[in-house]
Amino acid sequence: MANWHDIGLWSYSGAAALTMLVAAWLVRRWARLRDTRPSLGDAALLLALLATSLWAFAAASMGGTHAIAGLAESLRNLSWLAFLFQMVRSARAQPRTVTAVYLVLVVVLAGQPLVAIWHAANQGVPRLDELGYSAAMLLRMIFVVGALVLANNLYSVADAETRASLRLPLTALAAMWLYDLNLYTVGYLGRALPGDLVALRGVLMILAVPFFALAANRSGGWKLTLSRKVAYRSLSLFAILGYLVTMIAVAQLLRAFGGTIASGAQVLLVLGMSLAALILLPSDRFRAWFKVKATKHFFQHRYDYRAEWIRFTETIGRPGDGTAPFHERVIKAAADISDSPAGLLLAPTENGRLQLQARFNWPTADVPAQACTAGTIGYFQSTGRIVELDALRSGQDTLTDRRAIPDWVVMESNAWAIVPLVHFDRLAGLVVLSRPLIERQLDWEDLDLLRLVGRQLASYLAEARSQEALREADQFDEFNRRMAFVMHDIKNLVSQLSLVASNAERHADNPEFRADMIATLQNSVGKMNTLIRRLTGYARSTGDGIRAIDAERIVRSVIADKAQRHKVVASSAPRMALMADPAQLEQVLGHLIQNAIDASGPDSPVFVSLSREGLTGVIEIVDHGSGMSAEFVRGKLFKPFISSKADGFGIGAYEARLLVEAMQGRIEVESREGEGSRFAVYLPLATRIENDEVGNNAPHLAAKVS
Known about the structure:
- The chain is built from 21 helices and twelve strands.
- It is α+β, with helices and mostly antiparallel strands.
- The strands form three sheets. The chain has a five-stranded antiparallel sheet with strand order 2-1-5-4-3. A five-stranded mixed sheet has the order 7-9-10-12-11, covered by helices on one side. The chain has a two-stranded antiparallel sheet with strand order 6-8.
- Helix 2 runs antiparallel to helix 3 (67-89).
- Pfam families: GAF, HATPase_c.
- This is histidine kinase.
């Protein structure tokens, strides 16, 4: 025992002398550098060295376990904590969460002497004496764990230039606090501090002093860059630590009172806190709440822009197998900014309206076929305004033009914000964001970042559409190349038939020639029928020009042709004059009715009707067949060379829309898988019908054609 006492005496004395010498050398160094003022970091280091020397002197003179030495140790730890905090303050952006962690450790240090006094006053009471000793050990362990976490985090976020100079002092501090953690852990478990470990603390401090001297030799301060990830990690670590400390402290209090009730209360406490942790920690809503509160109270800015930009580029620019489609990634890239769990993308069509382009985690949103009002595109294209829908619903938003916001968006209670995607003063789309898990209002920082992200997403959409147009042009080139082969086959057939015709004049009476001619003609007819089947419907008709026509006569003519192979039900309607090209309209209706027949079962009729809608005539083709998915209607139905049929070219619907648009009309589609489809052709009404279009005795459209 005497040997350990002597070792402690000399080692603590040596540590006190060495740290005092380093402090004196630091002051003398400042005196030599008269033109250079000492930095706050150097002043904090000097204070920490003096406090360490004072603690070592108290431990040498009174013993390492004396109450005065314990108080001096708390002052030493406080001074080194101030040194670390001064390095944190030199960071370019200091998160408030780091300051909060330091304040927590200061409170822990302030509680150490209070617990020591309370422990000394209750040494005669066994249970209170044991409780006071355990509380003192726990407070010291809590501090060293927190200090080690801060030292590690500071080193991990320092820049490359500063990290080399920080390595020595932080290594010395880590060694000092790791030794303290082991010492107090052994003391907590053994109910007393071992004398040998207490004496060896002085030896450790002698070894650590040269590291502090090398740190003091550095001129200037430290520049640190703290990341939010480190801040969240620090908060998480201290939350876990606080959780454990609370459990241990309450359990110790219950054990101090003893009895069977206390034992049962301990069990209930452990079970209750464990259940609360299992419920809260995996919860998405709890994590979202934690992030919002931490960002609001601990950071100067809501967003870590570097991290947000990296996440944005990874979301939007990661194609390949297993990833979401491009338009869904567009929604997700915007939704991640505000932590919205779902969203919708509305894209403009060729006729100047908006339609649903894609959904992201929002299958219940009821979006009509025409998803905008007459002024929606113009308003967002000219203003680029981000609309917060809750403020619009409550009447607080008086700047947004209510007429430009579709009613279905306002009525959709889960819709939270509308973000326009504007590219070079043209609206590339609208993203409708759903409510985040933790509701909040959009502030200026949200609006700035969403506006910037919207412009970037608009450029991605514009590029995707350019690539799609280029791909269609390439497909047309390929189609033209294939047409060259077809024309070559036709040329061969014409040559073969010309040869037969020229020989027929000389050998018409030859029975063998006639037999061979018949075989040649049959073979040629078969080949020509094959070519006709391949080409039917894909050659654009030049037409007779747009003029006033009798729509009923055109519809009746197409139905008469199609009804020979499938039941077609047509509703009666008044005579209607449309401005259209009769040949092209007949071709359009032929495409659409044939598609409806192909999609229907043998016993499922196709319905055709005519009606008026304002200054527009409407021809509807309805079937109850297989139907189409919303994704197919939005992205593939009117695209060339894409077909739902196994043997289709994908030109019919594409050509039908082009022909209708050339006649100043439009085609609208509604379809559900397994329920059927509705195609509506809208064409402008005419004032009268030319006399040669309708005979005097032409019947009305039959009620049923089969």
